[in-house]
Task: structure prediction
Amino acid sequence: MSLQAPPPQYVLGLDLGTTSVKAVLLEAESRAVVDSQIQETKAEVSSPEGEKGREQDVARIVSALHRCVAALPRERLCKVGRIGVSGQMHGVMLWKSQEGCVWQRAEACYTFQPGETSHLITWQDGRCSREFLDSLAQPDSHLSLATGYGCATIFWYMRNRPQFLEPYNVAGTIHDYVVAVLCGLKRPLMSAQNAASWGYFNTRCGTWNLQILRDSGFPTCLLPVIVESGAIAGKTVHEWYGVPVGTEVGVALGDLQCSVYSCMTEKTDAVLNVSTSAQLTFALAPTFLPPARPNPAASVAYYPYLDGIHLAVAASLNGGNVLSSFIGMLQQWTQELGLEVPESTIYSRSIHAALNIACTDLAVQATIFGERHSPDQLASVTNISPSNLSLGHVTRALCCGIVENLHSMLPCERLIESGVQRIMGSGSALTRNEVLKQEVEKVFTLPIVYRKTVDSAVGVAMVMLDRK
Result:
């Protein structure tokens, strides 16, 4: 008779986001975060595809990951019993199995560095035009294909730069890569959550559309092996900054699902997250089955969650990145005027100015990055008058535009009809922006609870703690 392993004293949660990496230590007994670290990756690099290409240096992401883990208390890391890893969805990187990383001993601990890998092509990548996507075989899936999705990006390379693919024999998300490295996997494993974000994956049967892909000449040998979301992928092959060798590592999960898991305390909660992008989501009944075919014009998609449940998700490409672009534009203008003003100062003064404006008749369509269901949609500003051109009016209108766009994708009325009773607000772009909060509360009439500490790193740690 086998004995059940004792529960872990701590769970290490890692989230590899678009702009930063976060690591948290969750105490198993209290479910409290006892330590956390966050590091900006500064991994953005130029792409041969120019402005349409969005690529990141994997070595910089890994470096930020190491800095996070190394900064956590070693006396607690040595008592970690499980590791959970989440990250930015849709994106793809490629590497050569067994040569994708190099483990080395440094300062009395093991660490690893990327070996033969590609850049990470992120979810923000825009190289796959609508014409290109329309030329691809129709997936057997209820989810539409979009630019920035892993399979679409590989198709693009196959047709436009096939030599790029030649050095590599496996592919995955950045967080799939980290799990594969930690566990020494020859071929990466991928959860249904991440597979659904790549395209050509049927969530009903949990399999890739292998025949469709093979008929299209797609290199299916690159695809990871699918396992259940929440499953254990393997065990660490080296001690890592004090984390013991043999520590269980969960298969990588999507940052959206982990963010939801961290704050959806009741089944009747919806979760509004505004970080780089923005998402509004709620859990559907266990009996829900997604439609057999996608509706490319639909603004709500259905993504696999855990234990056979799907999430209804309005995933906007326009969130905190819109505000960042606005602040960056203001900084560029000040530089062109011969002034040097930090972005942090511009941001705080813009928000302060907007707080003095209760409402504005200036209207901003804040979709500067388009939307997956409407990729050619651009931003616009209307109803301009001499009285609404102040910094406060423009900032207020921009925040209103971000919220109105999300509400147009998933109206409050549908939330109420689906049994949602409150909204859990999260994400740094929302929780630190009082103007954005005010605009959310104007549009969404349900009770709203803000959770500053809610994030994917906490969520993936909780998932790993709760899995048997």
Summary: The chain has a mean pLDDT of 92. The chain has 15 helices and 26 strands. The first helix runs from residue 58 to 70. The first strand starts at residue 10 and ends at 16.
